[in-house]
Amino acid sequence: MIAFELIYDSANICGGENLKKLILSKGSDCIQPLKELIEQQKHRTLVAWALESAPQFLDIFEQKYFWDQRPRQALEIAAVWARGEIKMPEAKKAIHAAHNAATAAEGEYAAQAAARAVGHAAATVHVPTHAIGLVLYGLTAFVYASDPGQADQVVEGELQRFYQRLVYWQDNIDKLETTWAPFLFRG
């Protein structure tokens, strides 16, 4: 069992006290192994991992908001930005639009968290510290989209998947044949 403060009950969900509320925080014990692995990575590694991880959250968002393409567009633009084909202002506008889509998804907590996860995945191109936002909002989206009795299992399984995929990218980022924006080689 994972020991985390789960904000997943009808009083909190239906009350809409804070629609950005997460089920975990950066300080949650269960997050620490993945957080430490994230902190050890090259920027490019985190970008590849984040862009690979994000499409599943598009699926959650688009189940309720299939007509709203802002999160999908943010992810597509982030990939173009990571290749150095556009500049930050264009990408930043699309990333903010993904977060605005989350805000507009009032009452649909899984969709809101999913759009924020995508926004953080896209923003990982800007700075690596957004990668943890992908995890926190992503896990929140998965929990809100699942049966409440399955929250622990969902978090455990998804944390393991995030971790395994990041290890894959850590081991294979230099084998990826792609063009990277020069700023992704700094630091």
Question: How would you sum up this structure, described in words?
Answer:
This protein starts with 9 loop residues before the first helix and ends in a 15-residue tail after the last helix. It has helices at 10-15, 32-39, 43-53, 55-64, 70-82, 88-104, 109-123, 131-145, 151-172. Helix 2 (32-39) runs parallel beside helix 9 (151-172), helix 5 (70-82) packs parallel to helix 7 and helix 8 runs antiparallel to helix 9. Helices cover 63% and strands 0% of the residues. The relative contact order is 0.19. It has 187 residues and is an all-alpha fold. It has one domain (29-175).
Question: What does this entry show, briefly?
Answer:
The protein has helices at 10-15, 32-39, 43-53, 55-64, 70-82, 88-104, 109-123, 131-145, 151-172. With 187 residues, it is mainly alpha-helical.
- Outline, from the CA principal axes? globular
Mean pLDDT: 89
Spatial separation of the terminal alpha carbons? 37 Å
- Output the helix-strand order: HHHHHHHHH
Please, how many domains?
1
Task: Give the radius of gyration.
Answer: 16 Å
How many β-strand runs? 0
Helix content: 55-70%
Question: Low-confidence stretches at least 5 residues in length (pLDDT < 50)?
Answer: 1-19
Share of residues in strands: under 5%
SSE blueprint and pairings:
Blueprint: H1 10-15, H2 32-39, H3 43-53, H4 55-64, H5 70-82, H6 88-104, H7 109-123, H8 131-145, H9 151-172
Task: Give the key terms.
0% strand, disordered N terminus, globular, mainly alpha
